[in-house]
């Protein structure tokens, strides 16, 4: 990987106002999420996994915003990085230099990964601060898919693992967005394809479970994790769960294979299409 090309793409990302706007908007997103959970707590028992304390607010805040906010940020940034630059001719200027299409696409992807990693880090730090500011501390916290409460110290490792898996899930969906950006000739088309994928991914678990129940098909429940958004919605919590009634190992294996499958198919597909010599004529 050419470091100069990566730095060039990194700088290009931060020259866009939208990249800074997403970063600047994060405190407002965290504050709005804290306000929502503070109101939600009034109707929830403190013994419930849905109850928000200072210690679990960073995870609860990510659960609330992961599917929409982080996925949409990824979609818009990738669309601007690939489709918009193609439409405006900026990519052609880079291709005139001594870089291959494959090197350019990899640099764009790595720069995108770095920006999203920064967003996750900032969101985590802001959520920790908001949790301490707006919610009461508690020594033992009940988590989803846990038979027993987790001590406050244990929440540190749990939170870091949750954010790490959430980051990987956004990258898996990002590989689909990258493919949409590569094949689209307009930003509207790329965003439309990306949003269409998100809607299909959101709808698949509902249709699958309905067909499985009504039709009596008896298919494994884990197949709902063919949906990447379902992995984000419940799969991460199941993977980190410690309950006898939950098969955490099966969920982790399914999510891993599905995520790798999406990344391989759409990542390789993007590279092949992007590398076509006649695309830049």
UniProtKB/TrEMBL annotation:
UniProt keyword list: Membrane, Transmembrane, Transmembrane helix
The answer, when asked if Acetylation is one of the entry's keywords, is: no
Q: Which residues form the signal peptide?
A: none
**Highest taxon of the source?**
Bacteria
Q: What is this protein called?
A: Uncharacterized protein
> Transmembrane segments in this chain: where?
20-39, 59-83, 109-135, 155-183, 190-208, 250-274
Q: Which organism is it from?
A: Paenibacillus rhizosphaerae
